[in-house]
Every structure is written in structure tokens, then in C-alpha cells.
Amino acid sequence: MYSFKNDYAEGAHPRILKALSDTNLEQSEGYGCDEHSLAAAALIKERLGGDSDKVDVHFLCGGTQTNLTAISAFLRSHEAAVGTNMSHIFVHETGAVEATGHKVLTVPTTDGKLYPDGVQAVLDAHPGDEHMVKPRLVKISNSTEIGSVYTLKELESLSRFCGEKKLLLYADGARLGSALCAEGNDVTLADIRRLTDAFYIGGTKNGALLGEALVITNDALKEDFRYHIKQKGALMAKGRVVGIQFEELFRDDLFFDLARHANGLAQLIASALKKAGYSFLTDSPSNQIFPILPNSIISKLQKNWSFIVWSKIDESRSSIRLVTSWATKEEVVREFIKEFE
Amino acid sequence: MYSFKNDYAEGAHPRILKALSDTNLEQSEGYGCDEHSLAAAALIKERLGGDSDKVDVHFLCGGTQTNLTAISAFLRSHEAAVGTNMSHIFVHETGAVEATGHKVLTVPTTDGKLYPDGVQAVLDAHPGDEHMVKPRLVKISNSTEIGSVYTLKELESLSRFCGEKKLLLYADGARLGSALCAEGNDVTLADIRRLTDAFYIGGTKNGALLGEALVITNDALKEDFRYHIKQKGALMAKGRVVGIQFEELFRDDLFFDLARHANGLAQLIASALKKAGYSFLTDSPSNQIFPILPNSIISKLQKNWSFIVWSKIDESRSSIRLVTSWATKEEVVREFIKEFE
Amino acid sequence: MYSFKNDYAEGAHPRILKALSDTNLEQSEGYGCDEHSLAAAALIKERLGGDSDKVDVHFLCGGTQTNLTAISAFLRSHEAAVGTNMSHIFVHETGAVEATGHKVLTVPTTDGKLYPDGVQAVLDAHPGDEHMVKPRLVKISNSTEIGSVYTLKELESLSRFCGEKKLLLYADGARLGSALCAEGNDVTLADIRRLTDAFYIGGTKNGALLGEALVITNDALKEDFRYHIKQKGALMAKGRVVGIQFEELFRDDLFFDLARHANGLAQLIASALKKAGYSFLTDSPSNQIFPILPNSIISKLQKNWSFIVWSKIDESRSSIRLVTSWATKEEVVREFIKEFE
Amino acid sequence: MYSFKNDYAEGAHPRILKALSDTNLEQSEGYGCDEHSLAAAALIKERLGGDSDKVDVHFLCGGTQTNLTAISAFLRSHEAAVGTNMSHIFVHETGAVEATGHKVLTVPTTDGKLYPDGVQAVLDAHPGDEHMVKPRLVKISNSTEIGSVYTLKELESLSRFCGEKKLLLYADGARLGSALCAEGNDVTLADIRRLTDAFYIGGTKNGALLGEALVITNDALKEDFRYHIKQKGALMAKGRVVGIQFEELFRDDLFFDLARHANGLAQLIASALKKAGYSFLTDSPSNQIFPILPNSIISKLQKNWSFIVWSKIDESRSSIRLVTSWATKEEVVREFIKEFE
Q1: Min Cα–Cα distance to chain D from C237, Å
Q2: Mind giving me the DSSP string for D30-44?
Q3: Alpha carbon distance D216, D171 (integer Å)
Q4: Is A224 in Cβ contact with D134 (below 8 Å)?
Q5: Is D320 within 8 Å of D278 (Cβ atoms)?
Q6: How confident is the model at residue A215 (pLDDT cuts 50, 70, 90)?
Q7: Which residues lie below 8 Å from residue A209, measured CB to CB, with a gap of 6+?
């Protein structure tokens, strides 16, 4: 049974394993102060454009950990995060942000994205009254939880809005590679850097064994951040393990190549499904697609393929989630598509 | 410059890298529900003796994370942990336990260990008065922060004491392998299982890239523990990464062999230093030793060797920390010893 | 300008001030262990029926404090509270519950009440998956935030549902007096005791200077609760200050008389407004009413009366909140009513 | 049995009760925005000297609540408070500060006071290493937990030290009145204002029913503080209850007169005991004294008097704590003294 359940079913891209192996017996500093972590940070900074001394790059183990560490470090206890009602921090992190003491406010979404008017509605409902939390950090995911991708215009609009309202903009980039390499995407890493106060570049879901690179661009958020990484249990003794992986991912275009590979295969499936007449939960150019299928077809597919049934559409149809990754093989995808021919 | 600074300067034992590589393209369930994690848990349970269904084994990324996740899951908010004043959770985890809302109470130590009379003194100072926290969990490290190792008699005595006082006993096993393989040690993994409510088996400092195996033996502490792992950011999407490593460590005696190797080389140095007339901060049969040396000797050593100057003894002498690992080579150790001949 | 803004605009009922004065120079134990607090607890227990030894009564300063202390003491960190989207803990306590580490899940409401099907929808969305919080405590307010009152049948239904689903039922009783004395109410204090795991009887909004009486009926929630009161800053050195007030309120029927007085005057206004042809946001038999009025009328009223404009209904109408209290005078109410004649 | 156990055994000074009574039926704004709270704040600001617009005054219910609200609002999560090992926040607040996520670091004391060299020792042990918390706020109590009082020189020295080290200085003033009115005291309220970043003026232990006035002098700590008061459950609906009391205490010299009265009677006892040849735990010119007495004498005293046995001195002697208050009567004190004649 082949799985399209997620993009973390396999290990790491072979080049990453090789890098870990090649460096294995080097002695290095602990806790992310090793040369590989420093080199990886430098390579990432290069990609971000601008003055590379102006951003801080930290490596953490996973996405939930990165979100909770960053958000709790950035906010005072009366300040809240704002996300969509599909937001990973709101739904799927077991209250990790709340466990650090912060409320997560939500904006309803159908396409997974957050727009200024949605955030404005939250601000309107919180008019500076100390009986309510103070919305302070806007959290987006790019690509979103349902695979959609922000356009440059959307990001600029949201960023400008946040600036005007003195809100921080934080981007969860668990699947940032996929977003940046999506067909039609007009956003670059340098744009993300320019338009957010902090964001992270996901490794786990794009070819690494584990690891996320958090980039802090707002000076006011940088101070003492390593204390927070340690306090939240995210400072690895062998920090090199993540550093080496990101060094390999950004040594050349591997990070982008892997994302492009995943996107391409997801879109191959999407095309076939469109051609077969099916619609989708939302338009997704990234590595997660959410086709709406008759339940009978879903049952049939489940005999040979593993995937998540996402949501009920009506009595006879549901949406499913299909995810591809750097490890997905084109021949397998073509075999899957045959189910619809 | 060769480093004796710690036991996490290198990557992983080659067999572990090979295991990661061999399994790399397998598709597996996420979040620690994969077959390798299950197999690793089963192998560990076998080593623990008794009825293997009676313990839960969870894999987390690192020590601080394991400590904070376990302690915060085990305690209600008015309950406190008790450790020595050298305890890692008290000194070197950036207030991680306090950040989850719990006070850490301390007992002074010179040998790194916690004894019933020390814990009793804490109980005496907290006589059930709601104006003070309630001591509830006793946290030990084995081997301790300064390399000493608990005897079976000591553990049994502390465990009995905790049982009588309704205290939970939790063992930080970042260097449990080293403790269990120390010359003269009479404690087994099965003993640890029998005598504690929970403990963890450290992988990071004994040959793994990362990862700790938390064992919960007390039924009352098991419920819903995975929620806490997720909430604290410790549930890895590719949980297999830790599972595969522990599977390899416990498939045969690799875990113990690596610890024995590290201990042997630390003791080789210790013997030479004793022979050369130097004393030690405390008696340590494990892979961390703390010789007391003249400052002039220390300066000379620092030209070729990297290590931590631990504490000032008097105007002319300091203690240093020398740590060996699975990766330390005997020839290097012999070269180091020559400095004292 | 007379205020109908809330039920805490004045001080305390004169009998309460007199009781404070009469006992003023007595020396008493601190921290709620004084004889007046004990007597007040005993008087409350009598009203609760059943075996009075089976409940614990604690006195705290205010409603938010009581909610946050109780909920954080009752829940483990992965467990969440469930309330309506109008719930005070969700909207108007500055994230107090989240600040103790717990998510608050919501159910949409129009009448302010929570019903089993709404809670079931939350349970359906949280099917025992450790990536999401675990709904564990159902929080209702009676009377609700918009003045409605639970019927016995509704409470029994919700209580039975919670029991079946292993959910705790907790009632915020900031205005419990008003609920119990509402026209048509068929619920007694003894019912509340029987049907909830814990609830509080509000003093601040029913004639006291300050103070709420928390009643814990579920044995499993009682242990060490005073530690939590102290830890959250809610254990008053002069605990007698609240004890004396509740002793006076429950020495005879003062508590109920005051609530009945407030209700009666709110309903007098409500009748007049109904007669004048106005509708209401919801049906409220308690001391808070929410008539829907033309904005022109509201502007006119605002010249002589102080009240809160609650919500916009349409372009020309809004709902307002009118609150009466033990201190409201009938002649003032009759004068207010004249505005609509 | 007359009690010298504490200074909160009685209710409030009669003038305070009268003020509550006189204002009882006024309608006022809730949550501390009433005219009495504003007037009280203005009166306190006048006493503080300097530009009264430069400080913020907030009224809270009790000491533990004020400490936890202030400290958690002032610190980021990796920052720690520093106090003596007798410090109320360290010993007697059930881990309230830790429950908000912050470690409390300690300095040993015998006289109850904190000096720069003690704080420096804590700084030396925390040399900017992210594996340890960052000491950030120095918390003193004046008078201290054992009745001693800071001199102006001591406060200036500590304040200068904190300024140099970028540490915040916060003073717990539960018994600030007693300190300021102590024989030999050379510190004024204006000095406290000038030398700290924030402090509170205790009402509960100096004649009020309840209430503390928190003064924030450091601009950087003022923003959004009312959100924190609300979030921690410390914002009273009837905030006037504390406002009216402080208005009365500071309308003239009542606050100081009450403290002077309490001090005078404690010192009367102290003189008699000195004359009778007894020594004291420490030198205390305030309303708490700690004489060292033979256990046989203590047993005899306990027949007629209630007080706390503080600490064991040796096999035959213990220290006891005797506390006087605004309500203590001179004739009772003279009767007590007769026990030693």
C-alpha cells in the first residue's frame, strides 16, 4: 500500500544522509554553535538578500516546537496570536501556544489564507479593552494547511496592514519550499524576509530527517532568543545534526529542487483529476491537493492507496488529502492516475 | 585540538547511520507510530524485565525536552520537583521546569547524589502548608552531573523512601548507559524500572544523533502522555528517526558496548592522574571525571586539548571536566596521558 | 446620570457593611480559617442539601480569579475547557484561562446557553487525537452572559451528557442568585450542587463588596485546592472579609431577596419595553435585559441614563444592556420607563 | 487568648469602614476607574514627590497577587527574579512566581536584606549563558520578612548596582508603612519611588480590609499593565473598595499614624525583653520582632498569648515572632510585658 498521507513518510534525501555520514567523526561545538550550523545560517542569509547581518537564523527540531518557542518569546502574556480557523497552531498543536500562556484568535477561512479584512475584524472585536487579550502577532502558513499559496500582492498587503496596526507578522513555513516553488508563485525568500518579522523554513517536510530554520528579521525580537530555544527544550546537544542538513539543502538548489519535484507530482495528479471532472476543496498549486471525490471512489482507492479523508462535502462525496514529497516517484503517481482513467 | 569537552562532539555510531540509511526509503507512519519505533520500544521493554506490557516507552528528541515534558505532565501546578543543587533541571535548563509552572526545590550535595535524609529535610521545611509548594517528584540523575553513580542499595533506599512519602521518583538518564556500565555498578535497567516511576534512557550522549527513550512505569502517569509530548513540541513528524536509532542500540548490546567503551577510556585517564598524584572532585566511575589540577598544568593542557574548567578549588588549583564518549579513541587518550608522565 | 451599566456600581448592602463593622475588632485566624468563613461555609452547605460534609466551600475575591483558579486546578495541561462563544472566560477575561495553559474551545450560541449537541460537536472535532487538545471541562454561566437562565431539564440533560462523556461540568455563578430567583426558574441551589462538579455563588454582583463562594462537589477535584487559591493570589490574608459577607447573605434569605429585587426591577423595564413594542436579543428573566431599540431612541436615552450599547442589529437599530441590582430603586426604574410612554 | 500572630487579625481602621459606608450608595465606574480610586492614586502620587504624571498607580487585592502580576508582567520568560532565601516570593507564595513561568534565584541572608554583593554572586553564577536563566529583577521586601529595615544608603547602593547591571529593582511593601515609620528610618516614600522601578504600598497589613497600591515608576514597565491585572484575576469589579480605603489612608497621615502606632508597641515589647536580658534573631525597629526565649518561657506564654514559634535556636531556646498592628492596644502590650517582670 503506497502512502500519499503526508510528506514525512520517508527518511531524508540521500545527499543529506551522505552529508551526515561524511561529517560524522568531526568533533564540533554543541548546541548549534558548530561550523556546519554557522555555514548553513550563512547560506540561508545569502538567499534572503539584503544585509545578511540583519537577520538571525536559528535551527530547531520541528514545527510545533518552532511555533511555540517563537510565539512565546515574541509576545507578552496579554498578547494573542491571530490565525485562520484552520491554522495549525489553533487546531493541530494540542494547545501548544496556549500552554505557553497565549490565546489564539481566529479568522474564518475557506481558502486557508489570512487577509487584512479578516484581521481587521479581530481588531474591531478587541478595541483596546483590558478585559480582552490584545491581538499582536499575525500567523500565516505558506503554503497553507490546505495547500494554497500567498501571492506577492497578498503578502505585501498583509505586511503593510500589520505594520500600520503594529502587529507582528510571523510565517509558519513548514512547507515554504513547496510554496516558493509552486507554479505561478511570485514570492521569493527575500520577499518573505522583507515582509515578515520572523518565519521559518521547513526542513522536515522537504527532505530533511528533521529540522526547521527560524529566521528573525525584526531586531526587537532577536534579543536572548537562544535562551528561549533552550528553555523550551529545542536546543539540541548535537545541533550539528540540523545544521549539516540545512547546509546541504542550501549549498546549491537542493532545497528548491526537492520542493519542485514534490509539487510537480502533486500537480500531475491534480491535472488528471481535473480532466476526470473532479473539483477541489481549494485551488492548490503546492504539494498538497484536496480533490472532492464520490465516497464510492474513495473506498475503492483505499484498497491500494493510503491517504487522509479530509472532510465530508455532502452525503455522497468527501474531500481527500493527497500529499507528495521529494521521495515520491513519478511512476507511482502515474499508476495512481490510472485509477481515474 | 582534541576535545574532551563533552560526549556529543561527534555524530552517531556508524551502525546507527547505516540503520538510518538502510531504512531510508521505507514509508512509515508519522509521529512515532512507525514499526521501528514500536520495535525499539519492544526491545527496550525486553531489557526491563517483568511484564513488558506494564510500561510505556516514548521517544523524544533531547534531555531538557524530556525532563520538562515528563515533569509537567506528572505534576499538578502546586507540586514541586526536588533535586540536588547541581541538578541539571535546576541549573542548566534555563528554567524549563519553572517555565511549565513548577518550582524546583533543592538539596545541597557534594557527590551529586540525592539521599533520603536530604529529601526529608525538604519535606520538613514543607509541612503541608498551602502557603508553600508541595514537594511531589524526586528527580535524580544517574550518572549524576559530576559523574558519580548510584548503588543498588542507595536507589532502593531512595525508592522506598519515596514510596513511603508518596513522592514520585524520576531518573534523568542522559548518561544512564554510562552509569549501568560503570566499574562496580550493581544496578540493572530492570532495577531502574522497578525502583522509579519514570526514567529516560539517553541516546544523544551514547552514540545516537539525537533521542531519548522515556519509560513510564507508574500506571497513574501514563494516561494521555502523548498529548503532552505533542503540546511541548517533542512529537517528531519523522518519529522513526529516533526509533530506528534505539532499535539499533538495543538490537544487541550496542548501547552498553558504547557506554563501556567511553567509561573505560575515562577511567584510563583517571588511573593515570591518580598515579600522578592528583585528586578528584568526587569519585566517578563513569565517562565524566573531574580531576583537580594546578592552574599551571591546566594552562599547559589547554594548548593541545579542549575541556571545561569546572570550578575553582583554591588560589592555585581548579577542577576540570574530562568527558569521553563512544567515539573517543584509545590512542588519543594514551597521548593525553603522556602529558602527565 | 443614573447608571444601568452593571450590577456593581454601588458598594454593599447595608446589612453587609454592618456585619463588617460589628465584627471589626474581633481577632481572627487569617486566610479564610476564621470562624466567620467557617460559619458562612456551613450556611451555604445547608442550602445545598444532601450531606454537607460532601462538598468543599472556598471563598475567593472575584469571578475571573475563581474561574482561572478552579479551571487550572481541575485540568491537566492538555485538557481544554468548552464554553459558548459568548463565554466570559473566552471573551472577557484577557485570556486568563489560556494564561494558565489551557485552551478554551467554543460552541456558537444565540441564547447564551450550552446544550449537549453543541458540546458533542466539539467532541466530534476532537476524536482522541493527541495532536489536538482534549475537551474535558464544560463551563456554563447561569444566568448567562446575556441574561438567560437554564431550566432544570436543560441542566439535567447537560449534566447527564457530561457524565456519560467523562466531562466535568463547572458553572460560573457570578449571577447565580439572579438565575435562581428568576420568574419561572425551576432550579435550586441543591440542583446545581447535584448536577455540577463545581460552581461558584457570586457575591460581588449580588450585594457584597467583593467575594465569590466556590463549591466543589466532585471529590476528585478537592484535594489540595487551597494550594491553588494561594498560588493564584486569591487567598486573602483577611479572608474574614469575604466570610463575614457570605455569612450575612446566607444567615437568612438576604442573598435571594437581593437577587429577587434586582430581577423584579429588570422585568418591570422589560414589560414596559415589550408593551412599547420592542423586541429583545434573547429572552431574559434575570437582572440583565437586552432590548433592541432604534438608534435614535438610544441617543435620546443616553442623555439621562448610562448603559452599554451591546451590539449592532441593523443600520437603524442596536441592542443595549440594562442591568439592575440590589441597589436599584423602583422609583428610578419607573422614571426610566416613562421615557417609553 | 490575645494574638500577636500577625497584623491582619482584625478588620479595618474605623475611619476606613466609615469611608466605605459614607460612599456606599454612590454609583461609580467599575474596575478601578472610579473617582475614589483616581483620587487615591492622586494622593499617593503627591506623597511620592517629583512629577506625579511620571508614575502609574494600580490597586490590587493582596500581596501575593501583586507580586505575581507585577513580576510576570515585567519579565520575559527566560528572565528570573532574585531575592533572599527568606523572600516571601521564594518561600511563602506556593510557587506563584514560578507558576507564571519564572525561576526565583536566591541569596542567603541572616538579616533579611539583599545587598549588591549577594546579587553579584548570582550574576557571577549566570554569566550570560543561555543554558541558565537570566537574572533580571531584584526583589526586596521593606520591612523584610524578619522585620529589618533598609537604610537610605543601602537602598541607594542597591539601586545604583541594579542600574549598572541593567536589573530591575522591585520592592514588596506589604509592610512598607512600618518600615517608613520605624525609629531611625531615613528613607521616604519619595526615595522608594526614586530608587526602584516599581514597588507596592501595603494596605492589608496597615489598617485596610484588603488592598495594595502598586506604583510603577519605570516607563518601560507601564504599558498595558491593566491587561495583566485583569488576566491574573486581580481587577476587582468594585475597584472602588480598595480605592476608597487608600483615599482614606492617604487623605491625611492616617497610613503613617497607623504604622507608627504598630511600631511603637512592638518596640515597647522589645525594650522590655532586652531589659529582661533576651536577645533577638535580628535587629528589628518595625512591627515584627523575633526575640529568642527559653522554651520553658515560650510554653508558659502560650497559655495566654497566641504567636508563632519561628525557629529553633538550640536545644533549649527558640525564636518567636511577635507582631503588632494598628489595632493593638497599649494596655494589652503592657499586660504582656508583665510576663517578663
Answers
A1: 6
A2: STT-SHHHHHHHHHH
A3: 11
A4: yes
A5: no
A6: very high
A7: A11, A12, A16, A20, A241, A245, B20, B209, B238, B241
Instruction: Render pLDDT for A285-323 as a digit per residue (tens, 0 to 9).
Output: 999 999 999 999 999 999 999 999 999 999 999 999 999
Mapping DSSP to helix (H, G, I), strand (E, B) and coil, where does residue D293 land?
strand
Residue B213's φ and ψ, nearest 5 degrees, are -110, 110
Inter-chain Cβ pairs, chain A and chain D, closer than 8 A: 49
Average of per-residue pLDDT across D315-326? 97
Q: How far is A238 from chain D (nearest CA, A)?
A: 15
pLDDT at residue number B53: 78
Q: How many CB atoms lie within 10 A of CB A197?
A: 23
Nearest Cα of chain B lies from the Cα of D69 at a distance, in angstroms, of 14
Cβ contacts (< 8 Å) between D65 and chain C: which residues? Answer: 232-234
pLDDT in tens, D286-312: 999 999 999 999 999 999 999 999 999
For residues C313 and A103, what is the distance between their CA atoms, to the nearest angstrom? 28
Q: How far is CA D101 from CA A94, B72, D210, in A?
A: 19, 12, 27
Percentage of the residues of chain B whose pLDDT score is greater than 90: 97
C-alpha to C-alpha distance for A143 and A285, rounded to whole angstroms: 9
D230: part of which helix (H) or strand (E)?
A: helix D225-231
Taking the C-alpha atoms of residue D157 and residue D153, their distance in angstroms, rounded to an integer, is 6
Say how far apart CA B78 and CA C226 lie, in whole Å: 10
D-chain residues within 8 Å CB-CB of A100? 77
Mean pLDDT of B75-83: 97
Give the count of Cβ contacts less than 8 A between chain A and C. 52
**Interface contact A94-C100, CB threshold 8 A:** no
Name the amino acid, one letter, at D190.
A
How many Å lie between the alpha carbon of A11 and the closest alpha carbon of chain C?
A: 22
**Residue-averaged pLDDT of chain A:** 97
Q: What structural domains and CATH numbers belong to chain A? A: 2-8+255-338 (3.90.1150.10), 14-252 (3.40.640.10)
Pick from B94, B99, B102: CB nearest D131: B94
Burial A209-236, CB ≥16 within 10 A → b, else e: bbbbbbbbbbeebbebbbbbbbbbbbbb
- Segment B211-239 shows an average pLDDT of 98
Cis before A143 (ω within 30): yes
A98 closest CB neighbour out of C94, C101, C130:
C101
> Which of A241, A304, A305 should we substitute to test contact with B (largest number of B Cβ atoms within 10 Å)?
A241
* CB nearest B11 (choices: A14, A23, A66): A23
Q: What ipTM is given for this predicted complex? A: 0.97
Decide if B11 and A24 are in contact by the 8 Å CB cutoff.
yes
Which pLDDT score is estimated for D53?
A: 78
Per-residue cell: C38: 467557617
pLDDT digits 0-9 by tens, B193-204: 999 999 999 999
| pLDDT exceeds 90 at position D341 | no
Neighbours of chain D (3+ CB pairs under 8 A): A, B, C
Is C117 exposed, middle or buried (CB count within 10 Å of its CB: 0-12, 13-18, 19+)? Answer: exposed
Q: Are D130 and A230 contacting, i.e. CB atoms less than 8 angstroms apart? A: yes
Tens of pLDDT, residue by residue over D225-280, are 999 999 999 999 999 999 999 999 999 999 999 999 999 999 999 999 999 999 99
Taking only the tens place, the pLDDT of each residue in B234-292 is 999 999 999 999 999 999 999 999 999 999 999 999 999 999 999 999 999 999 999 99
Sign of the C-alpha dihedral computed for residues B3, B5, B11 and B16 taken in this order? positive
Using an 8 Å Cβ cutoff, are B277 and B258 in contact? no
Dist. CA D66–CA D58, nearest whole Å: 10
Q: Which pLDDT value is given to residue A13? A: 98
